[in-house]
Amino acid sequence: EVSTEDPETAFFTLAKREDLNPEEGSIHHCLYQFTRNEKLTETNKLLCDVCTQRHYGPKKNIKSEKKYVYTNAKKQMLISLAPPVLTLHLKRFQQAGFNLRKVNRHIKFPEVIDLAPFCTVKCKNVAEGNTKVLYSLYGVVEHSGTMRSGHYTAYAKMRSMNNRLSDLVLRGQSPQALETEPVKGQWFHISDTHVQAVSASKVLSSQAYLLFYERLL
Questions:
Q1: What is the CA radius of gyration of the chain?
Q2: Which helix (H) or strand (E) holds 54?
Q3: ∠ CA(120), CA(184), CA(90), 5° rounding?
Q4: What does the mean pLDDT of the chain come to?
Q5: Is residue 69 over pLDDT 80?
Q6: How do beta strands 150-159 and 119-124 pair?
Q7: Per-residue H/E/C for 105-124
Q8: Strand pairing of 79-81 and 119-124?
Q9: USP domain: which residues (predicted)?
Q10: Residue of 89, 90, 45, 86 lying closest to 69 (CA atoms)
Q11: pLDDT for 120-149, tens place per residue?
């Protein structure tokens, strides 16, 4: 889908990215890098239909002659619709020659995360005037082992039902004002049939592979 945006606001976010100083090795740094502004130049230039038509005329003549105009451009991936449940999948492998190698580095992640610096200023289902899009952590999947073998375990928070989240999922209603603290509850570590109560600090020290957050605000 191609849409025309005001160039003055096309790359604006709900909260200023300039205020961020994400620590390397954190989930904030991962999101910051994934949503950074990129310049498309040289062999990465963008095929511009408007420029092509302006230079060669109507499209019916372009296809027959196979002539196109490419132009320098800017590209940025931003969130246009804040989801009720946010799932973050961390890339836990890297290419090492002809082999894949697992990345065991710990990535820091918070109990409450604000997605506003990574959302477009016209983000849908965010109340007008809101400059925060908050999520509370409720689940983590961790993998131990190597690329060839290993074991998956999970951390899950037992908590009370979030009725406002249900409204958002079922009716698409945007939250107006909710708690900005983590949802209260008890964390559990689940490994096959073994379940054990654990502290939040134990969860936050895990080598996360998948992170699950529920929307607060």
A1: 22
A2: helix 49-56
A3: 45
A4: 84
A5: yes
A6: unpaired
A7: CCCECCCEEECHHHEEEEEE
A8: parallel
A9: 1-216
A10: 45
A11: 988 888 888 888 999 999 999 998 887 778
